[in-house]
Amino acid sequence: MPKTPRSRKPAKPRPNAGTRRPRHHDHSYKQLFSHPEMVRDLLTGFVHERWVASVDLGSLEAVKASFITDDFREREDDVIWRVRWADGWLYVYILIEFQSRVDAFMGVRIANYVSLLYQDLLARQALTDDDLLPPVLPIVLYNGESRWSAPTDLHTLIEAVPGGLEAYRPHWAYLLLDEGAIIGNADYPLEVRNLAVALFQLEKARDEPTWLAVYARLVEVLDSQALDSLKRAFGRWIYKSFIRRKRPGIRLPDIDDFHEVHVMLQQRVEQWNAEIREQGRLEGRLEGRTEGRQENQRSTALAMLQRTALDEATIAELTGLSVEEVRALRNGPSHH
Predict the structure, then answer these.
(1) Where are the transmembrane segments (predicted)?
(2) What angle do CA 37, 39, 44 make, to 5 degrees?
(3) 91, 149, 264, 292 - which has most CB atoms within 10 Å?
């Protein structure tokens, strides 16, 4: 019998996609988004949709949902917020998922999380005035080095079958915020005054002077807004996680005050820069010694070429030069 024609296969998942659980941001990073100011700036700076202008950002309220999943320990500190429409009490739930690695099947996970949130809302009878479920905005915040390559809609991950069955593939999308793609993109704000921007710029800074300058500006913004709790959260994340990723193996004293962290970082960066300069001097001396030794080898080989009948291979063996280097000396102008 002839084989039944097969439809086009979906793209195979990238490595790590379904073989092992993706690595998430650390707990202190998530804690930054337990502050309404961070969620407010995330929405106003990076969600370019008209509905954002219709919500009362002053009503942002953290939601503690009770999820029971296979990875319960990772779900118990979910970042979920609700915000009120400016003209009514219809809540928009905002579910933020943190990723450090591309997950090809993130669409499946997001669909699962949102379904669990809806189940929790049903159990608590937290419905709209029309006895409907409220809308949910799922956000995936990604800070990996490579650009995000996974589909952002669940239906893309499901085999397309002809004959009408494809109509039942669920369309469940999430909003992707890829920090690496955002930095330098003119479509997004660049000012550190947006707290989410400051966080992304810190994450993607390539050298100490750059992130220290961003951090100093962030201190000014937080001071001007008297955000003491968020200041402590930033200080805790920078001190206990960020610095240790930038400088693996570093030993730091126990402090938790935001301003002390800033002063300590200034001192540390000056120390690190001095170490880099000293390392450069040491490497320069080593390079100088190497160049001097190579010049002596060339001088010795040149003298042998001028004063002896030794062949190139023998001179190379005696001096440590390659046969090609000896031949180049023989053919050079200084030999004639």
Answers:
(1) none
(2) 95
(3) 91
